[in-house]
């Protein structure tokens, strides 16, 4: 009798121990990616407080904004699609999106579909809006298609609802909330326009310095040893036609050297680079979409 009770007790203890161990494994596997992303984001933005940590979209817009006037160049017709590309890369860097498997025949980057890896909210309204569209769309679309759809550049009236509206204004308001910009009204003869002049020059200077140093003092001569976020920023700022603004203040010799190194990055072949270990394939797909 006593031995039977002992066996039952030990059996209960064993099952309970196994259940606890199983639950712990589930939590670990589910939380691994989130923890990795949190650590990556914290490492990427050392020295920045939570309030002034900027997304790729905000950084590209900030590089494109005129400091005093508070608006982007009227002649820049690249920044709209560039900002949509930034959203896709930002979501990929945060572990929300990825490309479908390349398959045995090795599909090209531009023919592979964008897959929702996680629909966990990012805390950014624009990113979550884009993520919701991508998650709910079946069959999935390619990177090129998503840049066009999110920009509203489609002839299909049934897909116009994918367009993210007033993106620049919404990003500027984010930067106002983070204390980087302020809001003013300017009169342009026939109409009034809301502008967002720079109010915190330290944040802008830190951003410009980060871009400059990545191809000057901190140049590593290997894109795969560069910080993924900084590499993406350089490539996407170029696609958005705002990268030049970061190098304009440099002396001639530094400017020439910096731009020479930028061109070595721009001349990389996305298809080839995406096959190397520890890369973000979706980022290279976005680069391929802008350079095709």
TrEMBL record:
It is a peripheral membrane protein. Keywords: Golgi apparatus, Lipid-binding, Membrane. Residues 1-12 have a biased composition (Polar residues). Residues 15-39 have a biased composition (Basic and acidic residues). One of its GO terms (cellular component) is Golgi membrane. InterPro entries: GPP34-like, GPP34-like_sf. It comes from the Eukaryota. Residues 1-51 are annotated as: Disordered. One of its GO terms (molecular function) is phosphatidylinositol-4-phosphate binding. One of its GO terms (biological process) is Golgi organization. It is found in: Golgi apparatus, Golgi stack membrane; Golgi apparatus, trans-Golgi network membrane. Belongs to the GOLPH3/VPS74 family. This is Golgi phosphoprotein 3. It comes from Perca flavescens. The lineage of its organism: Eukaryota, Metazoa, Chordata, Craniata, Vertebrata.
